[in-house]
Amino acid sequence: MDERRVLIAARRLFIERGPDTTVETIAIAAGADPAEVTEQLGTPRDIFMAAMRLAPDPDELVPFLLDTFRLKLIDTSDEPLPTLRAMLTDPDEIPRVQQAANEQADKLAAAMSGADREVRAAVMRSIMLGVGLGRDLLALRGLTSVSTDEIIEVLRPAFAALGDGPPTLDDRLPD
Fold this sequence. Notes:
single chain; mainly alpha; 11 helices; 0% strand; globular
């Protein structure tokens, strides 16, 4: 079984169908045996979490990142809100949240090029964190009054610019 292929199929299905996606549906989409998928990856929730931790392919960085963020925004479990609250109020949780955020930013940076890729990856991760806090914890009207897809489309040009990095001198010179 190609685990990455299964997780990529799962990402797409969770985005299209939501949290009710089954292991069987994921396995069929990935051309894998459902029993093997369950044995290797677990429940749909386990697969969902593994799909969100998947490292991006450098050629598909921005779509991958936006899909990951879409998954986080549509996550209907009770997990995100307590985690957000804990990271703001519980000093013991801060190191765990920092480690997770840094690991996610490192995966993004590894898929980017340029000397400032770590900075750009951290900015992308910070934007996602801020939007999540704004929508789920602060209930900012501008974020709660629109769909997840609308939020993603607003972020697309910013993430594309950050993913590509600043233009080089050659890009700025006229032909």
